[in-house]
């Protein structure tokens, strides 16, 4: 796979490879496997590596990237690394510490893209999915515009080259785009997109605002029993539209 020329220009001037390697895996897959599969992906030619704090494997993914830099396979600037801000850290004062925690796990000086994982705030704390005594999610009240301002500061500080969002609908995107004093537009919106969910309207909206739509589950998706009904159709890698 030749990574050269297979890139899309983002609205902040940086470039994102059109094909990315996602490192999410179900809980039953050992986190240690992320090390070897990420190494293999880089050897195969992938230059866009996508992970997240939620995936609990950034330490292993970072180790894989650093090992391929150390042996001369790639340079740091060859790799486009995406990380994500989880829902328990959407309060503005928690954004930079969350990114710095990812950077510490990765042992990298910066990420290429940092995105809001979901436009839903959950109660801050160690639990990824905080629940009350009845098993219901405990939400938090956060203005996403304030979260976005904190991401802008992370970009200005050089902790991330670009900033974007994930799983946003057009109304949530409009809220960011119409924010008074907006300094940087989201460069992308990473969403589920495949033949059974073609996202044509959202794609048109993103294109009209020079926002790249990054598709996950583009050729198929893992059957996570908590997320989809057992009789759902299967449609894998993801790509940039």
UniProtKB/TrEMBL annotation:
<protein>
    <submittedName>
        <fullName>Dihydrodiol dehydrogenase 3 isoform X3</fullName>
    </submittedName>
</protein>
<dbReference type="Pfam" id="PF00248">
    <property type="entry name" value="Aldo_ket_red"/>
</dbReference>
<dbReference type="InterPro" id="IPR023210">
    <property type="entry name" value="NADP_OxRdtase_dom"/>
</dbReference>
<dbReference type="InterPro" id="IPR036812">
    <property type="entry name" value="NAD(P)_OxRdtase_dom_sf"/>
</dbReference>
<keyword id="KW-0521">NADP</keyword>
<dbReference type="InterPro" id="IPR018170">
    <property type="entry name" value="Aldo/ket_reductase_CS"/>
</dbReference>
<dbReference type="InterPro" id="IPR020471">
    <property type="entry name" value="AKR"/>
</dbReference>
<comment type="similarity">
    <text>Belongs to the aldo/keto reductase family.</text>
</comment>
<keyword id="KW-0560">Oxidoreductase</keyword>
<feature type="domain" description="NADP-dependent oxidoreductase">
    <location>
        <begin position="19"/>
        <end position="229"/>
    </location>
</feature>
């Amino acid at each position: 796979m030749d990574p050269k020329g297979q890139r899309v220009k983002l609205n902040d001037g940086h470039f994102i490879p059109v094909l990315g390697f996602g490192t999410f895996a179900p809980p039953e897959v050992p986190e240690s496997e992320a090390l070897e599969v990420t190494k293999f992906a880089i050897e195969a030619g992938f230059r866009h590596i996508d992970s997240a704090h939620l995936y609990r494997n950034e330490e292993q993914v970072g180790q894989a990237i650093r090992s391929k830099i150390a042996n001369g396979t790639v340079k740091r600037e060859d790799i486009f690394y995406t990380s994500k801000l989880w829902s328990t850290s959407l309060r503005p004062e928690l954004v930079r510490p969350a990114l710095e925690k990812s950077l510490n796990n990765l042992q990298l000086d910066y990420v290429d893209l940092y995105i809001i994982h979901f436009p839903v705030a959950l109660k801050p704390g160690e639990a990824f999915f905080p629940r009350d005594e009845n098993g219901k999610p405990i939400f938090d009240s956060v203005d996403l515009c304030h979260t976005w301002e904190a991401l802008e500061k992370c970009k200005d500080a050089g902790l991330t080259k670009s900033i974007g969002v994930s799983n946003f609908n057009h109304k949530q995107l409009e809220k960011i785009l119409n924010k008074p004093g907006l300094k940087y537009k989201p460069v992308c919106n990473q969403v589920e997109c495949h033949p059974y969910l073609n996202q044509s309207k959202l794609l048109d909206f993103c294109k009209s605002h020079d926002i790249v739509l990054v598709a996950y589950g583009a050729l198929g998706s893992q059957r996570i029993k908590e997320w989809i009904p057992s009789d759902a159709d299967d449609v894998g890698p993801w790509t940039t539209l």
